Write the structure tokens for this entry.
Amino acid sequence: MKTALVCGAGGFIGGHLVNRLQSEGYWVRGVDLKHNEYGNDKADDFVIGDLRDPRVCEALFDRQIDEVYQLAADMGGAGYIFTGDHDAVVMHNSATINLNMVEMARLHGVKKIFYSSSACMYPEYNQLDPDNPKCSEDSAYPAMPDSEYGWEKLFSERLYLSYYRNYGLEVRVARFHNIFGPMGTWDGGKEKAPAALCRKIIHAEDGGTIDIWGDGKQTRSFLYIDECLEGVRRLMESDWTGPVNIGSEEMVSINEFVDIIATISGKKINKHHIEGPEGVRGRNSDNALIYEKLGWKPTQPLREGMAKTYAWIEKQAASAVK
Ligand code: NAD
């Protein structure tokens, strides 16, 4: 039986990944500072531990681990990443986790290690035009991410790739573009746009108004969690290191995105644009490389995944009120 360690298993993507690996027949150990908020961790073994501590990392390898999926990071949505207030902790915490884990993987003979980077590492100067953002993998340099979160991701990508070059450690690096779906944070300040907009619309009356950060003309693409996991698994099974985008090419403006969610809700929703942290003006995944190398790209329309996500958040919001 193959064994896997999922770092960040208490989080959104990590929780789903644990279940996906289990369904494929892996023995899975999860590790996180906390259990999954929504009970979405069916790991065979779950360790509560702080990956900034090398002794905690070391103890995770008391049995043979074939594959490591390193998703633990200090992160959140725009309200956490782009205000500047958390820059030092974001950089320190995430870099320390990555420095520890890649070294442990090397010392303990791990066969492959996956690292989740982010589209936030792409240079801001290529993402100023909301209609024509450029995020092909080869456009990463000269580097100029718009946040310290993005700089840490770029540093850590390079860290993993240097272990591949110098030690032959089999690394796989993906750049996620806005992953969403059920069982993700939907309130409390660390939630991202899809969940935050669903929550606002759920709480609004029919004909009511919701606040939107910025003018709503900024563009993004969003990828449903199941598609993200498919991309991760295909990359891990391949003999190619990446880095590669794992995202959707269905780009929408935030105003259009709100209209899609409003249609799902069946409510008429008015938009009130206010000042707030926005990130880059435009961003879209470029899937040419993943298609070329892995013969795969996501297919599910945004509306389908959003309908499932909306229904799940609606349930959460209803039970939070009780
Ligand atoms: P998440 O915040 O839900 O999960 C991250 C988990 O890491 C959390 O459960 C957190 O408790 C854990 N963690 C943080 N510090 C830790 C520490 N010191 N020790 C142990 N665990 C620690 O985030 P997510 O959305 O599931 O994202 C997973 C990964 O994917 C992250 O690396 C993130 O940067 C990357 N990513 C996510 C997105 C997205 O849209 N969700 C986009 C780009 C990149």
